[in-house]
Description:
The structure is a single chain. The protein has helices spanning 17-20, 43-47, 71-85, 96-99, 110-125, 141-145, 153-169, 189-193, 204-228, 250-273, 280-286, 300-306, 356-370, 395-414, 462-472, and strands spanning 10-14, 89-93, 129-135, 175-179, 233-239, 243-245, 311-315, 320-322, 331-332, 339-340, 346-347, 353-354, 374-378, 418-421, 444-446, 458-460. It is of the alpha/beta class. GO terms for molecular function: beta-glucosidase activity. It holds the Pfam family Glyco_hydro_1. Keywords: Glycosidase, Hydrolase.
Amino acid sequence: MNTRFPEGFLxxxxxAANQLEGAYLTDGKGPSVSDAxxxxxxxxxxxxxxxxxxxxxxxxxxxxxxxGIDHYTRFKEDIALFAEMGFKVYRFSIAWSRxxxxxxxxxxxxxxxKFYDELIDTCLSYGIEPxxxxxxxxxxxxxAKMGGWQNRDCIAHFERYAKTVxxxxxxxxxxxxxxxxxxxxxxxxxxxxxxSNKHGxxxxxxxxxxxxxxxxxxxxxxxxxxxxxxxxxVGCMIIYMTSYAVDANPINQIALHEFNQIFNxxxxxxxxxxxxxxxxxxxxxxxxxxWDDLGVEHDDFAILKAHPVDFxxxxxxxxxxxxxxxxxxxxxxxxxxxxxxxxxxESSDWGWQIDPQGLRLALxxxxxxxxxxxxIVENGLGAYDKVEDxxxxxxxxxxxxxxxxxxxxxxxxxGVDLFxxxxxxxxxxxxxxxxxxxxxxxxxxxxxxxxxxGTMDRLRKDSFEWYKNVIKTNGESL
Length: 478
Protein backbone atom coordinates (compact mmCIF):
# COMPACT_ATOMS: atom_id res chain seq x y z
CA MET A 1 0.00 0.00 0.00
CA ASN A 2 1.46 3.36 -1.06
CA THR A 3 0.74 5.94 1.62
CA ARG A 4 2.95 8.74 0.34
CA PHE A 5 1.33 12.13 0.91
CA PRO A 6 1.27 15.11 -1.49
CA GLU A 7 4.43 17.19 -1.73
CA GLY A 8 4.33 20.11 0.68
CA PHE A 9 2.07 18.32 3.15
CA LEU A 10 2.50 19.95 6.56
CA UNK A 11 3.56 17.36 9.14
CA UNK A 12 4.04 18.63 12.69
CA UNK A 13 2.62 18.70 16.18
CA UNK A 14 0.33 20.75 18.41
CA UNK A 15 0.28 22.23 21.92
CA ALA A 16 -1.43 25.03 23.85
CA ALA A 17 0.21 27.72 25.97
CA ASN A 18 -1.91 27.02 29.05
CA GLN A 19 -0.89 23.36 29.09
CA LEU A 20 2.87 23.64 28.72
CA GLU A 21 4.25 27.14 29.26
CA GLY A 22 3.85 27.43 33.03
CA ALA A 23 5.18 30.74 34.38
CA TYR A 24 1.56 31.71 34.89
CA LEU A 25 2.31 35.04 36.59
CA THR A 26 5.82 35.65 35.20
CA ASP A 27 6.90 38.80 33.34
CA GLY A 28 3.57 40.54 33.77
CA LYS A 29 1.26 37.70 32.74
CA GLY A 30 -2.18 37.64 34.35
CA PRO A 31 -4.12 34.49 35.33
CA SER A 32 -6.33 32.84 32.70
CA VAL A 33 -9.41 30.64 33.06
CA SER A 34 -7.20 27.55 32.68
CA ASP A 35 -5.05 28.72 35.59
CA ALA A 36 -8.18 28.56 37.78
CA UNK A 37 -8.91 24.92 36.96
CA UNK A 38 -7.91 22.28 39.54
CA UNK A 39 -5.95 19.19 38.57
CA UNK A 40 -6.93 15.54 38.86
CA UNK A 41 -9.60 13.18 37.59
CA UNK A 42 -12.27 15.14 39.48
CA UNK A 43 -11.44 18.32 37.53
CA UNK A 44 -14.54 18.26 35.33
CA UNK A 45 -16.72 17.00 38.17
CA UNK A 46 -15.68 20.01 40.27
CA UNK A 47 -16.11 22.35 37.31
CA UNK A 48 -19.59 20.96 36.65
CA UNK A 49 -20.98 21.83 40.06
CA UNK A 50 -23.85 24.36 39.82
CA UNK A 51 -22.10 26.81 42.16
CA UNK A 52 -18.70 26.67 40.40
CA UNK A 53 -17.35 30.19 40.02
CA UNK A 54 -13.98 31.73 39.19
CA UNK A 55 -13.05 32.38 42.83
CA UNK A 56 -11.74 28.80 42.82
CA UNK A 57 -8.23 30.16 42.21
CA UNK A 58 -7.74 30.16 45.99
CA UNK A 59 -5.21 27.59 47.23
CA UNK A 60 -7.48 24.63 47.81
CA UNK A 61 -6.41 22.40 44.92
CA UNK A 62 -3.34 21.52 42.86
CA UNK A 63 -3.12 23.72 39.75
CA UNK A 64 -0.83 21.95 37.24
CA UNK A 65 -1.23 24.70 34.63
CA UNK A 66 0.75 27.05 36.87
CA UNK A 67 3.99 25.20 36.11
CA GLY A 68 3.08 23.28 32.94
CA ILE A 69 6.31 21.70 31.69
CA ASP A 70 8.28 24.94 32.05
CA HIS A 71 8.20 25.51 28.29
CA TYR A 72 8.44 29.24 29.01
CA THR A 73 12.11 28.84 29.87
CA ARG A 74 12.85 25.63 27.93
CA PHE A 75 11.15 26.38 24.60
CA LYS A 76 14.41 26.43 22.63
CA GLU A 77 15.20 22.91 23.80
CA ASP A 78 11.68 21.77 22.90
CA ILE A 79 11.64 23.37 19.45
CA ALA A 80 15.02 21.75 18.74
CA LEU A 81 13.43 18.37 19.46
CA PHE A 82 10.56 19.16 17.09
CA ALA A 83 13.10 20.16 14.44
CA GLU A 84 14.94 16.89 14.99
CA MET A 85 11.72 15.06 14.14
CA GLY A 86 11.52 17.15 10.97
CA PHE A 87 8.40 19.21 11.76
CA LYS A 88 7.17 21.32 8.86
CA VAL A 89 4.62 23.11 11.06
CA TYR A 90 4.11 23.66 14.78
CA ARG A 91 0.71 24.59 16.12
CA PHE A 92 0.79 26.53 19.39
CA SER A 93 -1.22 29.26 21.05
CA ILE A 94 -0.51 32.72 22.36
CA ALA A 95 -1.66 33.20 25.94
CA TRP A 96 -4.06 36.15 25.79
CA SER A 97 -3.36 37.04 29.43
CA ARG A 98 0.38 37.15 28.72
CA UNK A 99 -0.27 39.99 26.27
CA UNK A 100 -3.19 41.71 28.04
CA UNK A 101 -3.03 40.51 31.68
CA UNK A 102 -6.57 41.53 32.63
CA UNK A 103 -7.91 41.75 29.09
CA UNK A 104 -8.96 45.38 29.48
CA UNK A 105 -5.61 47.15 29.03
CA UNK A 106 -5.21 49.50 26.10
CA UNK A 107 -1.49 48.73 25.69
CA UNK A 108 0.01 45.23 25.47
CA UNK A 109 2.56 43.72 27.82
CA UNK A 110 5.81 44.02 25.87
CA UNK A 111 7.54 41.30 27.90
CA UNK A 112 4.88 38.84 26.83
CA UNK A 113 5.24 39.80 23.18
CA LYS A 114 9.02 39.41 23.36
CA PHE A 115 8.57 35.79 24.48
CA TYR A 116 6.54 35.02 21.36
CA ASP A 117 9.03 36.97 19.23
CA GLU A 118 11.69 34.50 20.34
CA LEU A 119 9.43 31.46 20.05
CA ILE A 120 8.37 32.30 16.50
CA ASP A 121 11.91 33.20 15.42
CA THR A 122 13.18 29.91 16.85
CA CYS A 123 10.61 27.99 14.80
CA LEU A 124 11.48 29.91 11.65
CA SER A 125 15.21 29.34 12.17
CA TYR A 126 14.52 25.60 11.78
CA GLY A 127 12.20 26.07 8.82
CA ILE A 128 9.14 25.27 10.93
CA GLU A 129 5.95 27.09 9.92
CA PRO A 130 4.11 28.51 12.96
CA UNK A 131 0.36 27.82 13.12
CA UNK A 132 -1.01 30.03 15.90
CA UNK A 133 -4.24 29.73 17.85
CA UNK A 134 -5.20 33.18 19.09
CA UNK A 135 -7.45 31.90 21.89
CA UNK A 136 -7.05 28.37 23.25
CA UNK A 137 -8.89 28.22 26.60
CA UNK A 138 -6.74 31.17 27.74
CA UNK A 139 -9.22 33.97 28.31
CA UNK A 140 -7.96 36.40 30.97
CA UNK A 141 -9.55 35.42 34.28
CA UNK A 142 -10.57 39.01 34.85
CA UNK A 143 -12.77 38.95 31.73
CA ALA A 144 -14.32 35.68 32.86
CA LYS A 145 -15.19 37.27 36.19
CA MET A 146 -16.91 40.03 34.19
CA GLY A 147 -19.25 37.44 32.65
CA GLY A 148 -17.04 35.87 30.01
CA TRP A 149 -18.16 35.92 26.40
CA GLN A 150 -21.77 36.63 27.28
CA ASN A 151 -20.46 40.16 27.90
CA ARG A 152 -20.38 41.85 24.49
CA ASP A 153 -17.45 44.02 25.61
CA CYS A 154 -15.29 40.96 25.02
CA ILE A 155 -15.58 41.54 21.26
CA ALA A 156 -13.68 44.82 21.50
CA HIS A 157 -11.15 43.38 23.98
CA PHE A 158 -10.48 40.40 21.68
CA GLU A 159 -10.31 42.58 18.59
CA ARG A 160 -7.60 44.71 20.25
CA TYR A 161 -5.67 41.61 21.28
CA ALA A 162 -6.00 39.97 17.84
CA LYS A 163 -4.93 43.15 16.07
CA THR A 164 -1.88 43.38 18.35
CA VAL A 165 -0.55 39.89 17.60
CA UNK A 166 -1.60 39.84 13.95
CA UNK A 167 0.14 43.16 13.33
CA UNK A 168 3.25 42.03 15.18
CA UNK A 169 3.60 38.76 13.25
CA UNK A 170 1.84 39.50 9.93
CA UNK A 171 5.03 38.90 7.92
CA UNK A 172 6.21 35.87 9.90
CA UNK A 173 3.09 33.76 10.45
CA UNK A 174 0.85 32.63 7.58
CA UNK A 175 -1.59 30.33 9.37
CA UNK A 176 -3.88 31.46 12.21
CA UNK A 177 -6.83 29.99 14.11
CA UNK A 178 -9.23 32.20 16.03
CA UNK A 179 -10.90 30.10 18.78
CA UNK A 180 -9.97 26.58 19.80
CA UNK A 181 -12.74 23.97 19.62
CA UNK A 182 -15.33 26.74 19.43
CA UNK A 183 -18.27 24.32 19.25
CA UNK A 184 -17.57 22.91 22.71
CA UNK A 185 -19.18 26.10 24.00
CA UNK A 186 -22.59 24.68 23.08
CA UNK A 187 -22.22 21.99 25.75
CA UNK A 188 -19.41 23.13 28.08
CA UNK A 189 -18.95 26.92 28.03
CA UNK A 190 -16.66 27.15 31.06
CA UNK A 191 -13.23 27.12 29.38
CA UNK A 192 -14.13 28.16 25.85
CA UNK A 193 -16.51 30.99 26.79
CA UNK A 194 -15.33 31.78 30.32
CA UNK A 195 -18.90 31.53 31.60
CA SER A 196 -19.07 29.97 35.06
CA ASN A 197 -21.96 27.74 36.07
CA LYS A 198 -22.97 30.18 38.80
CA HIS A 199 -23.45 32.88 36.16
CA GLY A 200 -25.45 31.05 33.51
CA UNK A 201 -23.12 28.37 32.19
CA UNK A 202 -25.88 25.75 32.18
CA UNK A 203 -28.30 27.93 30.22
CA UNK A 204 -28.29 27.38 26.46
CA UNK A 205 -29.29 30.97 25.72
CA UNK A 206 -26.30 32.26 27.70
CA UNK A 207 -23.89 29.91 25.91
CA UNK A 208 -25.32 30.76 22.50
CA UNK A 209 -25.08 34.47 23.26
CA UNK A 210 -21.41 33.96 24.11
CA UNK A 211 -20.90 32.00 20.89
CA UNK A 212 -22.52 34.73 18.82
CA UNK A 213 -20.09 37.24 20.29
CA UNK A 214 -17.22 34.90 19.47
CA UNK A 215 -18.45 34.52 15.88
CA UNK A 216 -18.40 38.30 15.44
CA UNK A 217 -14.99 38.57 17.11
CA UNK A 218 -13.60 35.80 14.88
CA UNK A 219 -14.89 37.53 11.75
CA UNK A 220 -13.34 40.83 12.84
CA UNK A 221 -10.00 39.09 13.47
CA UNK A 222 -10.20 37.50 10.03
CA UNK A 223 -10.88 40.93 8.54
CA UNK A 224 -7.84 42.39 10.31
CA UNK A 225 -5.60 39.53 9.16
CA UNK A 226 -6.61 39.82 5.50
CA UNK A 227 -6.18 43.59 5.52
CA UNK A 228 -2.72 43.33 7.10
CA UNK A 229 -1.49 40.68 4.67
CA UNK A 230 -3.64 39.07 1.94
CA UNK A 231 -1.43 35.97 2.10
CA UNK A 232 -2.51 35.19 5.67
CA UNK A 233 -4.88 32.24 5.99
CA VAL A 234 -7.31 32.17 8.91
CA GLY A 235 -9.13 29.04 10.01
CA CYS A 236 -11.83 28.07 12.45
CA MET A 237 -11.19 25.19 14.85
CA ILE A 238 -13.82 22.69 15.98
CA ILE A 239 -14.04 19.36 17.73
CA TYR A 240 -15.36 16.90 15.18
CA MET A 241 -17.17 13.92 16.62
CA THR A 242 -18.00 11.30 14.01
CA SER A 243 -21.15 9.67 15.33
CA TYR A 244 -23.29 6.65 14.58
CA ALA A 245 -26.88 5.78 15.46
CA VAL A 246 -26.94 2.72 17.71
CA ASP A 247 -29.38 0.97 15.35
CA ALA A 248 -31.71 1.51 12.38
CA ASN A 249 -34.54 2.83 14.53
CA PRO A 250 -35.65 6.07 12.82
CA ILE A 251 -35.79 7.76 16.23
CA ASN A 252 -32.06 7.17 16.67
CA GLN A 253 -31.36 8.19 13.07
CA ILE A 254 -33.11 11.52 13.64
CA ALA A 255 -31.25 11.95 16.95
CA LEU A 256 -27.96 11.37 15.08
CA HIS A 257 -28.93 13.94 12.46
CA GLU A 258 -29.75 16.54 15.11
CA PHE A 259 -26.52 15.82 17.01
CA ASN A 260 -24.49 16.42 13.87
CA GLN A 261 -26.36 19.64 13.17
CA ILE A 262 -25.80 21.14 16.59
CA PHE A 263 -22.39 19.77 17.57
CA ASN A 264 -20.49 19.30 14.33
CA UNK A 265 -21.99 21.92 12.00
CA UNK A 266 -23.60 24.83 13.85
CA UNK A 267 -20.39 26.76 14.53
CA UNK A 268 -18.61 25.75 11.33
CA UNK A 269 -21.58 26.86 9.23
CA UNK A 270 -21.41 30.36 10.69
CA UNK A 271 -17.64 30.66 10.38
CA UNK A 272 -17.21 29.08 6.95
CA UNK A 273 -20.44 30.04 5.18
CA UNK A 274 -20.77 33.35 6.98
CA UNK A 275 -24.35 32.79 8.07
CA UNK A 276 -26.37 30.84 10.57
CA UNK A 277 -27.59 27.43 9.31
CA UNK A 278 -31.16 26.73 8.24
CA UNK A 279 -31.90 24.70 11.38
CA UNK A 280 -31.07 27.59 13.73
CA UNK A 281 -34.66 28.71 14.36
CA UNK A 282 -35.72 25.16 15.20
CA UNK A 283 -32.73 24.83 17.53
CA UNK A 284 -33.61 28.11 19.26
CA UNK A 285 -37.26 27.13 19.58
CA UNK A 286 -36.31 23.90 21.35
CA UNK A 287 -34.66 25.92 24.14
CA UNK A 288 -37.01 28.90 24.10
CA UNK A 289 -34.36 31.25 22.69
CA UNK A 290 -34.94 34.34 20.56
CA TRP A 291 -32.48 36.41 18.53
CA ASP A 292 -32.95 39.17 21.09
CA ASP A 293 -31.55 36.82 23.76
CA LEU A 294 -28.27 36.80 21.80
CA GLY A 295 -27.92 40.58 21.89
CA VAL A 296 -27.47 40.72 18.13
CA GLU A 297 -26.65 44.15 16.71
CA HIS A 298 -27.77 45.33 13.29
CA ASP A 299 -24.45 44.91 11.43
CA ASP A 300 -23.42 41.57 12.99
CA PHE A 301 -24.78 39.44 10.14
CA ALA A 302 -23.05 41.58 7.54
CA ILE A 303 -19.74 41.20 9.39
CA LEU A 304 -20.13 37.40 9.51
CA LYS A 305 -20.98 37.22 5.81
CA ALA A 306 -18.13 39.48 4.71
CA HIS A 307 -15.35 37.75 6.63
CA PRO A 308 -15.60 33.93 6.62
CA VAL A 309 -12.55 31.81 7.42
CA ASP A 310 -10.27 30.37 4.72
CA PHE A 311 -10.02 26.80 5.99
CA UNK A 312 -11.26 24.39 8.66
CA UNK A 313 -9.04 22.91 11.34
CA UNK A 314 -10.36 20.32 13.73
CA UNK A 315 -9.56 17.91 16.54
CA UNK A 316 -10.42 14.25 16.20
CA UNK A 317 -9.74 11.69 18.91
CA UNK A 318 -12.72 9.36 18.94
CA UNK A 319 -16.22 8.69 17.63
CA UNK A 320 -19.47 8.35 19.54
CA UNK A 321 -22.77 6.50 19.38
CA UNK A 322 -26.19 8.13 19.66
CA UNK A 323 -28.93 6.15 21.43
CA UNK A 324 -32.13 8.07 22.07
CA UNK A 325 -34.26 4.99 22.76
CA UNK A 326 -32.16 3.38 25.53
CA UNK A 327 -30.92 6.06 27.93
CA UNK A 328 -29.64 3.38 30.29
CA UNK A 329 -27.08 2.15 27.73
CA UNK A 330 -23.45 1.94 28.88
CA UNK A 331 -21.67 5.24 28.37
CA UNK A 332 -18.20 5.88 26.96
CA UNK A 333 -15.89 8.71 27.99
CA UNK A 334 -14.97 11.43 25.54
CA UNK A 335 -13.42 14.79 24.68
CA UNK A 336 -15.65 17.19 26.67
CA UNK A 337 -18.76 15.17 25.78
CA UNK A 338 -19.54 11.46 25.78
CA UNK A 339 -21.82 9.01 24.02
CA UNK A 340 -22.89 5.39 24.21
CA UNK A 341 -20.25 2.67 24.20
CA UNK A 342 -19.53 1.18 20.77
CA UNK A 343 -19.17 -2.60 21.00
CA UNK A 344 -17.04 -2.69 17.83
CA UNK A 345 -14.28 -0.42 19.12
CA GLU A 346 -11.45 -0.61 21.63
CA SER A 347 -10.88 2.19 24.14
CA SER A 348 -7.90 4.14 25.46
CA ASP A 349 -6.71 4.10 29.07
CA TRP A 350 -9.14 6.98 29.67
CA GLY A 351 -12.11 5.28 28.00
CA TRP A 352 -12.00 7.19 24.69
CA GLN A 353 -13.08 4.94 21.82
CA ILE A 354 -10.46 4.39 19.13
CA ASP A 355 -11.89 4.70 15.62
CA PRO A 356 -9.48 5.48 12.74
CA GLN A 357 -12.17 5.01 10.10
CA GLY A 358 -14.17 7.66 11.94
CA LEU A 359 -11.44 10.11 10.94
CA ARG A 360 -11.84 9.19 7.27
CA LEU A 361 -15.57 9.80 7.63
CA ALA A 362 -14.95 13.12 9.41
CA LEU A 363 -12.70 14.35 6.60
CA UNK A 364 -15.19 13.34 3.92
CA UNK A 365 -18.19 14.78 5.74
CA UNK A 366 -16.50 18.12 6.37
CA UNK A 367 -15.12 18.46 2.86
CA UNK A 368 -18.37 17.46 1.17
CA UNK A 369 -20.26 20.05 3.23
CA UNK A 370 -17.88 23.00 3.00
CA UNK A 371 -15.45 22.49 0.07
CA UNK A 372 -12.62 24.34 1.80
CA UNK A 373 -9.13 23.04 2.72
CA UNK A 374 -8.86 21.00 5.91
CA UNK A 375 -6.12 20.41 8.45
CA ILE A 376 -6.18 18.05 11.43
CA VAL A 377 -4.69 20.04 14.30
CA GLU A 378 -5.34 17.56 17.13
CA ASN A 379 -5.30 13.78 17.13
CA GLY A 380 -3.55 11.36 19.43
CA LEU A 381 -3.66 8.77 22.16
CA GLY A 382 -3.62 9.75 25.82
CA ALA A 383 -1.98 6.84 27.62
CA TYR A 384 0.09 5.82 30.62
CA ASP A 385 3.76 5.63 29.62
CA LYS A 386 6.29 3.54 31.55
CA VAL A 387 10.01 4.35 31.61
CA GLU A 388 12.08 1.17 31.41
CA ASP A 389 15.87 1.48 31.48
CA UNK A 390 15.59 5.05 30.28
CA UNK A 391 13.30 4.17 27.36
CA UNK A 392 9.59 4.39 26.60
CA UNK A 393 8.31 1.67 24.28
CA UNK A 394 5.02 3.26 23.24
CA UNK A 395 4.02 0.82 20.51
CA UNK A 396 0.35 1.48 21.37
CA UNK A 397 0.77 5.15 20.39
CA UNK A 398 2.53 4.24 17.15
CA UNK A 399 -0.27 1.80 16.32
CA UNK A 400 -2.95 4.46 17.00
CA UNK A 401 -1.26 7.14 14.90
CA UNK A 402 -0.36 4.75 12.08
CA UNK A 403 -3.99 3.69 11.65
CA UNK A 404 -5.20 7.29 11.68
CA UNK A 405 -2.58 8.34 9.11
CA UNK A 406 -3.71 5.50 6.84
CA UNK A 407 -7.29 6.78 7.22
CA UNK A 408 -6.08 10.27 6.29
CA UNK A 409 -4.45 8.92 3.14
CA UNK A 410 -7.66 7.08 2.24
CA UNK A 411 -9.54 10.39 2.61
CA UNK A 412 -7.04 12.05 0.27
CA UNK A 413 -7.76 9.32 -2.29
CA UNK A 414 -11.47 10.02 -1.73
CA GLY A 415 -10.79 13.53 -3.01
CA VAL A 416 -10.53 15.45 0.26
CA ASP A 417 -8.31 18.56 0.30
CA LEU A 418 -6.20 17.89 3.41
CA PHE A 419 -3.04 19.96 3.76
CA UNK A 420 -1.60 19.12 7.18
CA UNK A 421 -1.53 17.04 10.34
CA UNK A 422 -0.39 18.14 13.81
CA UNK A 423 -0.88 15.35 16.39
CA UNK A 424 -1.83 16.63 19.82
CA UNK A 425 0.66 17.03 22.65
CA UNK A 426 3.76 16.33 20.57
CA UNK A 427 5.56 16.76 23.88
CA UNK A 428 3.92 15.60 27.13
CA UNK A 429 1.87 18.37 28.72
CA UNK A 430 -0.93 18.95 31.22
CA UNK A 431 -4.21 17.35 30.12
CA UNK A 432 -7.05 19.81 29.55
CA UNK A 433 -9.72 17.32 30.57
CA UNK A 434 -8.12 16.04 33.79
CA UNK A 435 -5.20 18.34 34.59
CA UNK A 436 -2.96 15.29 34.80
CA UNK A 437 0.55 14.71 33.50
CA UNK A 438 0.02 10.96 33.56
CA UNK A 439 -2.31 11.24 30.57
CA UNK A 440 0.48 11.49 28.03
CA UNK A 441 0.28 12.11 24.29
CA UNK A 442 3.78 13.14 23.33
CA UNK A 443 6.63 11.83 21.23
CA UNK A 444 8.77 13.40 23.95
CA UNK A 445 8.44 12.27 27.57
CA UNK A 446 8.65 14.90 30.32
CA UNK A 447 9.74 13.70 33.77
CA UNK A 448 6.91 15.21 35.80
CA UNK A 449 4.13 13.55 37.78
CA UNK A 450 0.58 14.60 38.62
CA UNK A 451 1.72 16.32 41.81
CA UNK A 452 4.34 18.42 40.05
CA UNK A 453 7.33 16.31 41.12
CA GLY A 454 10.14 15.41 38.75
CA THR A 455 13.20 16.72 36.94
CA MET A 456 11.29 17.91 33.84
CA ASP A 457 14.01 16.24 31.77
CA ARG A 458 12.98 15.48 28.19
CA LEU A 459 13.28 11.92 26.87
CA ARG A 460 12.61 10.64 23.35
CA LYS A 461 10.03 7.85 23.16
CA ASP A 462 10.07 5.10 20.54
CA SER A 463 7.34 7.05 18.74
CA PHE A 464 9.81 9.94 18.33
CA GLU A 465 11.98 8.01 15.88
CA TRP A 466 8.92 6.47 14.24
CA TYR A 467 7.30 9.85 13.54
CA LYS A 468 10.63 11.27 12.40
CA ASN A 469 10.71 8.57 9.72
CA VAL A 470 7.07 9.17 8.79
CA ILE A 471 7.89 12.81 8.10
CA LYS A 472 11.15 12.01 6.32
CA THR A 473 9.33 9.66 3.90
CA ASN A 474 6.24 11.92 3.63
CA GLY A 475 4.04 9.22 5.09
CA GLU A 476 5.31 6.38 2.91
CA SER A 477 7.03 4.55 5.77
CA LEU A 478 4.58 3.74 8.55
